[in-house]
User: Which sequence fits this backbone?
């Protein structure tokens, strides 16, 4: 009886579509990012990132100086 | 339609049977529609929340100062914002992890911590501006900000700590749909159609390329394409556990969100233009709403103030969540809206603390809000190009993304966007370093 019910359900499902919410679905296998480690980079990319780092640090210092100046904490406007 | 809820064992799980709840439908069309509706959320929310309190002020100011002349800039930002967020969709679905985690794992500790610190700082300052807008709108609506601001903070915390991603998403999508009232509001203001059509054609407004215009354009770009969006949408996609099969629906979700946000931004500009046509000088959106009371209607004035609060609430929940997710990812804490408070205290703690501190700062008399607003604009401008460079490098990482990595045309479009954003960032930097470099008007 149980088998007949199962085959009936299977046949019914073949002609229909099942919508499953992502949160109700079986977890999907994703890329194992932790085992990949740091990204392999060419020298040009490395140099570009070092330049970007220098730019960002100098900009942050500039913004900090500007903010302190506007707040009147550096003693002049 | 003969739909029913079905619980069945997962396909392919031969050794371990895990129940899966699904809805059975008869047609492919219904299947597609329901799948889209289930995937809908991260893209719509990230885009609509981008029209936060700062954006309301910037777009209205653009309309109040330059009429509809800058509509083309907003329209041009539709593909820009979509292309950037579409990359986030692919990265989020392929890795199932947030942006902060990806930077930390693929670029090392220094970049991971720098990006996190920068994001947390800019997000917190932005959050203060959201509450400043709530404070301003409440005061103009006759609500004591000492009541309005804590109530808003409580609402923001309550919608997030329910332990259900779906509950948070439904409430936030409802707030997003409220934003559509901007369309009705713009229609009520009867914008001159010829001016709208003229505004869509690229050109410089009367008066030429002044310093004020340059910075307003930078502010428009900065408010439409913001760094927190990258972090928010990727973490949101990871939390919602979107699948590879959902990529096309997530793209559609993002595109729909981008269209709505740009249309709403245009409506804000139309509201500013209406105030300009009637000869009002722009100070802030709340004062503009009050100015419009005698010539428009009670509805227009109150709708503008309530929409300001709605924009601030949406921005606040998305920004606080992007901070909490990013912090949880880098620290390795449990970080999901699906978890109850007891199991993710650090994650909810960062969210609640950000909201509470930002709300508290706004209520301090004579808090340096103007300085905070300026710092937000500058820091976001500085951070954005570098954040997009990391995104671009990650999207070219075939080891990570495989078939989902960028195609050559993606790279061409994205490098063009990066070059333009860096140019604007440099102009902003020059203005900070030498404020008198550009003529005022």
Assistant:
């Amino acid at each position: 009886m149980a088998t007949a019910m199962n085959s009936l359900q299977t046949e019914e499902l073949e002609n229909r579509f099942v919508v499953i919410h992502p949160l109700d679905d079986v977890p999907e296998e994703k890329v194992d990012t932790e085992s990949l480690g740091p990204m392999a980079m060419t020298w040009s990319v490395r140099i570009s990132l070092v330049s970007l780092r220098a730019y960002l640090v100098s900009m942050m210092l500039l913004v900090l100086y500007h903010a302190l100046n506007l707040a009147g904490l550096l003693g002049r406007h | 339609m003969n739909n029913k809820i079905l619980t069945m064992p997962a396909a392919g799980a031969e050794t371990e049977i895990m129940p899966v709840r699904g809805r059975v439908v008869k047609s492919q069309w219904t299947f597609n529609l329901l799948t889209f509706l289930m995937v809908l959320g991260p893209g719509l929310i990230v885009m609509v929340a981008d029209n936060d309190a700062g954006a309301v002020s910037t777009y209205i100011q653009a309309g109040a100062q330059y009429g509809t002349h800058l509509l083309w800039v907003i329209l041009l930002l539709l593909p820009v914002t979509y292309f950037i967020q579409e990359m986030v969709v692919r990265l989020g679905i392929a890795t199932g992890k947030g942006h902060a985690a990806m930077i930390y794992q693929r670029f090392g500790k220094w970049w991971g911590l720098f990006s996190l610190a920068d994001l947390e700082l800019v997000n917190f300052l932005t959050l203060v501006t959201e509450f400043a807008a709530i404070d301003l709108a409440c005061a103009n609506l006759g609500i004591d900000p000492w009541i309005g601001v804590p109530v808003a903070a409580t609402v923001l915390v309550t919608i997030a700590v329910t332990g259900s991603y779906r509950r948070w998403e439904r409430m936030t999508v409802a707030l997003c749909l409220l934003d559509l009232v901007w369309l009705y509001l713009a229609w009520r203001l009867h914008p001159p159609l010829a001016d709208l059509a003229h505004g869509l054609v690229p050109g410089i407004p009367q008066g030429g390329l002044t310093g004020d215009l340059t910075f307003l354009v930078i502010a428009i770009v900065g408010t439409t394409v913001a760094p927190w969006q990258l972090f928010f949408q990727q973490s949101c996609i990871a939390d919602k556990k979107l699948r590879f099969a959902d990529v096309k629906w997530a793209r559609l979700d993002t595109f729909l969100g981008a269209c709505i946000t740009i249309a709403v931004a245009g409506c804000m500009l139309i509201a500013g233009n209406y105030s300009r046509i009637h000869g009002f000088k722009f100070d802030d959106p709340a004062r503009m709403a009050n100015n419009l009371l005698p010539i428009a209607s009670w509805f227009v004035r109150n709708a503008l103030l309530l929409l300001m609060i709605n924009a601030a609430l949406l921005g606040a929940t998305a920004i606080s969540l992007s901070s909490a997710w990013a912090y949880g990812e880098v620290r390795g804490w449990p970080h999901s809206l699906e978890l109850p408070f007891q199991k993710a205290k650090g994650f909810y703690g960062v969210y609640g603390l950000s909201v509470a501190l930002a709300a508290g700062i706004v209520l301090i008399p004579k808090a340096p809000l103007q300085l905070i607003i300026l710092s937000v604009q500058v820091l976001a401008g500085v951070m954005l190009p570098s954040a997009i460079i990391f995104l671009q490098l990650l999207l070219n990482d075939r080891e990570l993304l495989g078939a989902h990595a960028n195609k050559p045309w993606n790279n061409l479009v994205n490098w063009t966007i990066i070059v333009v954003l860096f140019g604007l960032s440099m102009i902003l930097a020059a203005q900070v370093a030498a404020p008198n470099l550009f003529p005022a008007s």
Observations:
- Chain B touches chain A through 64 residues (CB under 8 Å).
- The mean pLDDT of chain B is 89.
- Chain B has one domain: 45-433.
- The first helix of chain B runs from residue 28 to 39.
